[in-house]
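Supplementary notes for students who missed Thursday's class. We covered one full example, reproduced here. Read the sequence, then the structure, then the short commentary at the end.
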Amino acid sequence: MNPRLTKNQQRTICSQLGRFRLQLLYKASIHGFTGAAFHQRCDNRSPTVSVGYNNSGYVFGGYTKQPFSQSGQYVNDDQAFLFTFSGEKLLKYPVTGPGYAVKMVANSGPYFGEALALVSGSKPVVYNNPGNYYNFTAAEMHGNDLNLTECEVYQVEESTELEKPWRTIMWESQKRKELIESIKSYKPPVSSVTKARVLLIGPVGAGKSSFFNSVNSVFRGHVTSQAISGSSTTSLTTQFRTYSVKAGREGKPLPLILCDTMGLEESKGVGLDIDDMSSILKGHLPDCYQFNPSAPLHAEAHGYHRSPGLKDKIHCVAYVIDACKISIMPKGLEEKLDSVRRKVNLIGIPQLVLLTKVDEACPLVKEDVTNIYKSGYIKDVMQEVSSRLGVPLSCVVPVKNYSEELELDMDCDILLLSAVIQMLRFVDNYFDEVSDRLNINQSLASDLVIKLSNQPKI
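Structure (token representation):
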């Protein structure tokens, strides 16, 4: 059920009410141009905005904070008003007789005083009588066209939309192209390493495999599903997998490898074994290694990398967390994540958080992904993730994976690509730290040589 009221018109109406959003309750072309259909969908719901449309192109209606009923009585509402649109501008007509602001008529749609009624007498028409508790002119309100082509009623809901985005992001096709080119041209700052290796860690069902599939989709130009993903109570990933992303089907592999693991689970002896984590981070695990939750990897295992190089190690860790479940995360799972984080910290690998399913968590984002940094709710969730996992808010990045879509969406692509860019920046931090440690060790070695050379000969 799609609203006919445009997003700009909805914002304009909501600007008169405060930080609210509109949720469509009743649409006459679907539910019927009858009082019964209107009351079935809208009674006891409040506040509401009722909107009429006619063939002359007028969009008009009224607002009331009082719930509708079929009592036949007038109800008091000193906040009620009628309105019409003149282009994008809203013309507002406040109630002049608050005690008679709304009339509860069973055989009619929204009925404001004795001035205006939509779906009057259970017909697609307008009842119009200016001056009765609302002052307006019929020509200005609806162009004297009393035949309705549509009538909608919206419930006014509290919105978490912030006045301005708290992070800046450009939602343009040119930005998408720039992000893609930046990722394609990336080179690790260490000559012995050609590809950045990012490890994805998270609870079962959080969207680790889906994230790889989504990033792969962006570069393939269509939605793909190379890594096994879906809904399950246990991990669908049972092996350690390293996925290389290609720029197109026959394209050149990107300088990025995404490493997927078993999902973390609350109970002991299931899911990813914490003792395997050090082996993964240090580059000992071979691709396609079959996890055994009851027994960690040992040095005698087939394919075990005894002397991994810098190119085999993990250069960045990304925790994949479901935005819908962070507030109900089991204590056991939180403790496992904390154990992983401490291991990663000891080795000195940068960490960030990918916050998935943001559209399922927030209606504002589901309506439009570009609202991601205007959603106060998503910001609160990100702050909770930051607190629970012990990472700065700047290390928490929201994404929307492709799950039900058949075609790519530019805004989803930009979120996904922005997350990859952050990963590569963190990878650079890792190599900077490695380089600094190497320089320190070389300096210490040089100092030792000098000291030894200055010692008196026996």
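Commentary. The radius of gyration is 30 Å. The CA atoms of residues 168 and 224 lie 29 Å apart. If anything here is unclear, bring it to office hours.
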